[in-house]
Amino acid sequence: MIVQICVGSSCHLKGSEKLVDLFQKAIAEQKLEDDITLAGSFCTGQCNRIGVTVTVNDSVFTGITPENFDSFFKDKVLNSLKQERTKLNGVSDT
């Protein structure tokens, strides 16, 4: 899985550096270093009034903040990773 955090000027001013730290910590805590590639990206053209733009694989999400990071990481990263693993292993969720 590839997670890209926008570090363009607008997102930088809205806290992308803090989000990078949060992602690094969460990935390490979950021991997902081999499963997730964390990268920076320049402006994705999805600027929002609040928060940072984060791309998970090919899905773009706006408005990510330290306050909503935990739910975003669980819903959009961990759940997507689980779905990817299920597809690779050919195992049903049911």
Class based on secondary structure composition and strand pairing: alpha+beta
**Lateral arrangement of strands in the main beta sheet:** 2-1-3-4
The percent range for helix content is 40-55%
CATH superfamily: Glutaredoxin
Instruction: Calculate Rg over CA atoms.
Output: 13 Å
What's the average pLDDT?
91
The tally of strands reads 4
Sequence of secondary-structure elements: EHHEEEH
Percent in strands: 15-25%
Shape: globular
The termini sit apart by: 23 Å
Number of helices: 3
Count of distinct structural domains: 1
- In this structure, how is the largest beta sheet organized? 4 strands, mixed
CATH topology: Glutaredoxin
CATH top level label: Alpha Beta
- Uncertain ranges: none
- Second rung of CATH, namely the architecture: 3-Layer(aba) Sandwich
Describe this structure in words.
The protein is of the alpha+beta class. The protein has one domain (2-89): Glutaredoxin (3-Layer(aba) Sandwich). Helices cover 43% and strands 22% of the residues. The chain contains three helices and four strands; from the N terminus they run E-H-H-E-E-E-H. It has helices spanning 9-13, 16-29, 69-89; strands spanning 2-6, 37-41, 52-56, 59-64. The protein has a four-stranded mixed beta sheet with strand order 2-1-3-4. Strand 3 (52-56) and strand 4 form a beta hairpin. It is globular, with a radius of gyration of 13 Å. 18% of the residues are buried. The model has no long low-confidence stretch (mean pLDDT 91).
